[in-house]
Write a structure and sequence with these properties.
Two copies of one chain form a homodimer.
Chain A (H helix, E strand, L loop, with lengths): L1 E9 L6 H12 L5 E14 L4 H16 L5 E7 L1
Antiparallel strand pairs in A: 1-2, 1-3
Chain lengths: 80, 80
């Protein structure tokens, strides 16, 4: 079994209204030293394969096909 | 300026319907070797402070107060 973590974040320059809302929320809670917040997604995936190279290839394929919108998002795959 | 990444994931045992839906989606795309998927959130935060200890304390406080629901979620803070 292979465990992996996929992190999907918005590309630089893409507006992140959810992050802005969190900035506002933090400010209203008294956290004044926050310059910016950007929100992304994380997927913890367990694969049956034990070959890390095969796992990585499969995970990248999953990102391109389903987990990330590559027009506006970047993704990174990490075997853990 | 301090950059940090906060990762919020569901605690073990907490049902993750979104993760289950992604598993179904991956299966229907032909990814048959997936044992489980669990989804979480990631926050990339920029703080004004340059003191990593102060930053870490503030970030933990943010998680406890706003970013994570500690009843069902775990969080980790990483200065990057």
């Amino acid at each position: 079994m292979t465990k992996a973590r996929i992190t999907v974040t918005l590309k630089q320059g893409v507006l992140d209204p959810q992050g802005k809302a969190i900035e506002g929320g933090l400010a209203s809670l008294g956290f004044t030293g926050v310059d910016s917040v950007r929100q992304g997604k994380v997927f913890d995936v367990e694969l049956q394969t034990t070959d890390p190279n095969q796992a990585k290839a499969e995970l990248n394929d999953m990102c391109a096909k389903l987990l990330a919108n590559t027009v506006i998002e970047d993704y990174s795959v990490e075997i853990i």
